[in-house]
Design a protein that fits this description.
Elements: E1 5-14, E2 21-29, E3 36-41, E4 45-50, H1 51-59, E5 62-64, E6 67-72, E7 76-83, E8 86-93, H2 95-109
Antiparallel strand pairs: 1-2, 1-8, 2-3, 3-4, 5-6, 6-7, 7-8
Amino acid sequence: MSLVIQEHARARLITDGPDPRLVPVELRCDPEEPQTVQVRLPGGVDWSFALDLLERGLRSPATRGDIRIWPCGRAQLVLELHSPDGVAVFQFDKAPFIRFLSQIRARTAKRPAATTATATRA
């Protein structure tokens, strides 16, 4: 049984209105599947994507499928999610994402490396 890595963040939901709305967001990663992260949005909506997309998106614009991530200045991150219902754009402080990635690296670095068996012929 593995303990899920979690980090809580607040995002600004960018809308057409004059003021962005602050919403709670939860970042999650199961150490048994460290290459996948989940972002839980209000209302229990989950988006899953590859860890490397998040890592790349912290440094430069990155896109995979319906998800786009890019840095916004030195301390902000934008997450854009496309669905059949429309597009949602969230702006975050980078700090929770950096902590989250550090937790994943620390936890997965402690796991024993998978070994591969090699067959030899006599």
